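Morning run. Coffee first, then this:
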Amino acid sequence: MRRVLFLFLDGVGLGRDDPEVNPLAAAALPTLEALFDGRPLTASSGRFSHGDAHLIPTDAHLGVPGRPQSATGQTAILTGVNASARLGEHYGPRPDQRVRDILDEAGIFARLHAAGHATAFVNAYPQGYFDAVKRGKRLLSAVPYAARSGGLQLRTWREMMAQQALSANFTGHGWRTQLGYPDVPLYSPPEAGAQLWRLAQPVRFTFFEHWQTDFLGHYRDLRGAIENFERIDGFLAGLLDVMDWQETLLIVASDHGNVEDCTIRKHTENRALTVLVGAHAAAFAQRVHRLDDFADIIADFLDEKDLAGAQ
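And here it is:
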């Protein structure tokens, strides 16, 4: 069965080849290095392909000046609509009503459901998150909002316990040490990658959000960011080891730059990271230039459109 897996890494751009500044230049990333023949995930590599893997510096500005922001950038990814242009500004971190209207209008989960494709958003959220939303103390960010708008229920601690969801940091460790759930399953990063593949089996489109990259960038935590990228690399190792490369398109993408420059707390204006791996990746990589390109690519891949160039 043809599938799309979307691994969203918040706040990752392609920056300088400087390990004192850029954790992507400092981390040990054997899985990604093997995919890209040793090329670093930095601006100097440019647009690069090696076998079935494609590195694509992606325009996060979308024709609008200023620093790209999370709500409009994620909405562009999730809808194919240039939210920044429609609003006349980059906006974030969480959607206001203007952005929610775009997500309601064109969200990828609802779009795929209407086309007959089952979808999943596999992140789990602790009870405190739902309580804060109910009290009005927290707004849903673009991804969980789009999932709910598309008819999905957000997964909870119950799904975590039943091994039907993953924590945003892959392993579940923070749920035990910080969130008060001492019995949730723990995974090594490769085990978590393999678990994502298992969770994807019933559906055609699976989305997983990892927000710690953006968090670490805002706190200028270079050491923490290096360790985090090494966990991401381990996660990818476990996923790629079990993934069906002949039928699956894996998209690893971000909404804007941030963590690749740990000298500042703000988002950067670097191009965002995109990696495509797997089935027909070469054909679809040619169509990725901006954040608002992804939604059509996902729909076309699942509908088996525009595949002739990949034969």
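DSSP finds 15 helices and seven strands in the chain. Good start to the day.
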